[in-house]
Amino acid sequence: MSASKATETPGQAAKVKITPAKGRPMLTWVGKRPLSFVNAFPAQHVESFDPTGAFGRKPENPALWKDWPAAYPKGGLLFHGDNKEVLAHLLANGFRGKVNLVYIDPPFDSGADYVRKVSLRGVKGTAKLDGESYTLGEQIQYTDIWANDNYLQFMYERLLLAKELMSLDGSIFVHLDSGRGHYVKLLLDEIFGQDNFRNELVVKRRITKNLQRQFEGIKEYPQAHDVVLWYSIDPSTRFTPAETKQVRREEGYWHHFWSGENRPTMRYELLGVTPSDGQWKWGKERADRAVSNYEVFLKEANGMTLEEYWEATGCQLEFIRKSERTGKVENWFPPRDTRIASTLWLDIHAYENQKDYPTEKHEQLLGRIVSFTSNPGDLVLDCFIGSGTTAAVAQRLGRRWIGCDINKGAIQVTAKRLQTILGEQIEAAAQGRLVEEEDADRAPEPAQLAYTLWRVNDYDLAIQHNEAVNLACEHIGIERTRGDAYFDGTLGGSLVKIVPFGHPLTPLDLEELKRELEARPDEDRPVTVVCLGMELAAQAWVEEWNRLRKGKGAVNRIEVIELRTDPKYGKFIKHEPAQAKVKVARQKDKLVVEIEDFISPTIIERLEQQAGLLKPKIDDWRAMVDCVVIDTAYDGQVFNVALSDAPERKSDLVAGRYELPAPKGKTMVAVKVMDMLGEEVLVTSTV
C-alpha cells in the first residue's frame, strides 16, 4: 500500500512443514500434490495506523497478548500478498495453533469476483470506470485457475495451511455457492475429517427485481442462496447457539404441559409449580428438555384466582388466561421473541449489495459467525479479506484479527474501513461509552485500537518468471511448448524465448541464445525474443546477427518484441505513474500541507478508452483522489499515519489542505495520495 522503502522484518525465508491430510474421502484431480512443506518469505512493514500511540506503551490487557509473537506490534495485522505465502509466513513466525476462527470467502467461479467498479469523486453523474482488477501476479492467481483442476489445488493448499494455524478449539467457515461448494466440501472432509464437519449453512441472497421480471428466456432458477461450510478442529469445539428473531404465533397455537389424567409419576415441580390434583403432560426429562430448548409450555393452578396465582408465582397478569372450556386458570407462556437459529438463515442476507464491491459480505452474517464460535479477545483470520468485512466485524466485537489479500484495491478499501471504525471506537472511549450502548453485549471493549500493514513477497517488486511467461504468452498469442527446457513456445513458425522481466535484454542473454542454437544444428526456424526492455548494446548485437543472415535461405533470424514500445504489442505493463504537487510549510507550531495538483495518467487513459471519441474532462483534481494520508515524522521506511482524509461518500472530495501539529526540530513530512484505482504517489518534504 505504501510506495515507501519497507523494512524486512520479521522473519527470513524458510521452509515450513505441513501436516498431511488424513481424512476420507479423498478427492482426486489432475496435478494433485500433497503440501508437505512451503517456503516462507519475510514480511515487510509498510504502514502503521496508531492514532492513540498504543504501540508505544504496554497493552491495557497484557494477558490477551501474552502469546503474541514479539516481532509484531500488538494490534491488527493486514497483509498484502498471495495468501499462500502470507499463511506460510504466519506459520513460520509464531502463529501456528493460535487462530480461533477462520472465515474465508474464496472466489467462486472466476476472477471477475475481484473486479471493482470505480467512480470518480464528485457530484452525481460523474463518470465511472472499471477498477484495475489485477496486478501482474494477480492475473495468474485469479484467471486461469477456474476452468480446470488448478482450482482444486489452489484451494487444497490454502486450506491445509489454514488448518495448521488453527487452535485446538478453532473453527473454519468457507463461504461458497452451489457451483463449487460440493468440491470444496470433499476437500474439507479430507483435510479436517468428516467427524469435524459441523454444519452446512444456507444464507439468503437478494434477487434483483429486473431478473424477476424476465420470465421469458429464463433457462434456470435464479441463484437465491450461498452455502457456508463449517468445520472445526475437534467435534466438541465450543458453540454458543445463535438466535434469530421469531414472529409471535397466535395464542391458539401455543402448547401446554398440563394433563387431566391421574398419573402421580407425572406430578413434579416445574418452573416453581407442583400440580396439586393434576399432573404435567410430559415426563420430567422431556419437560426439562422442552424448557431448555425454549419450547412453549403451560403451568396449571387449579382453584386460584388470577390475583392469587400471580401473587403465588410472580407471573405476569397478561400471560394468565382462564380456560373457557374448563373454567380453570391456566398460565400460558408465550413464545420467545427469538429462537435458536437453524442451518437455514433467512433472516439475514449474504451480501451488502454494494455497487463498488458487489461481493461484499453482510456484517450481520459475519457478526453471527464471529459471535457464536469465538470469544472477545480471540484471534480471527480472513485470508481473502476483500472489502474487509471480517476484520471490521472482529474489530467491532472485541476480537483480534489478521487479514490479507493479493489485490491492492482490497487492501486499500479495508484500510480505510478500519480507520473509520477505529476512529469511532476511540471517540466513544473518550466519552466513556461503547459504540453501541443499546446493544452493549455485542460491543465489548476493543481488543486493539491500532493496526499495521505488511507486504509478503510483493509482486510489484519482482515478477516471478513463470508468471511473466504465462502473461506474455496470453498477451501475444504464443503457443506454449511444455517439453522444451529453453524455448517457451512458438509464434507462427518462430521459436519464442521470453527473457526474465527483472532485467532488460542484454548481450549476455543473446550470447546464451546463440549457444543454445549452436547446440541445435538442425534448428533453422527464426527466433522471437520477448522482453520488457532492451539495452542499446543488445540492439546492436541483434542488428549485427541479422545482417549476417540475409537472403531467402537465412536461418535463425532474431526478432525482438519489446513490450513497452512495440507498435503491435506495446502498452503491456507500460505504466506512467501518478504525480502530485505538494507544498509543505511550517507556521510556528503547525505544519500546513497543501496539495496543489494531482494527475493520474492511468485514470485519464481508462476514461479515454471508455469514452471513445469524446475527450474526458476532469475539472477538479480531487475527483481522482480516493484518500490522503500524512506522516509528520517519516523515517523513510515505515509510514505512520498521523492524518487520514478518506471521505465516506463518493460525492465528497478530500480537503486538499491540512494543518497538523508540528514536531519539534527538523522533520520529514510524507504525503501519500491514493487515486480511485488504488495507485499511490508519495511526496516527502523536510521542514
Q: Low-confidence parts, pLDDT < 50 over ≥5 residues?
A: 1-8, 109-117, 131-147, 246-259, 294-302, 314-322, 329-335, 437-441, 459-463
Share of helical residues: 10-25%
The proportion of strand residues reads 25-35%
User: How far do the termini sit from each other?
Assistant: 25 Å
The radius of gyration computed from the alpha-carbon positions, rounded to a whole number of angstroms, is: 32 Å
Query: What is the overall number of helices?
Result: 14
Would you identify the CATH H-level superfamily of the largest domain? Vaccinia Virus protein VP39
Query: What is the number of domains?
Result: 4
Q: Give the CATH architecture of the largest domain.
A: 3-Layer(aba) Sandwich
Mean pLDDT: 77
Overall, the morphology is globular
Tell me, what is the CATH class of the largest domain?
Answer: Alpha Beta
The count of DSSP E runs of length 2 or more, i.e. the number of strands, is 34
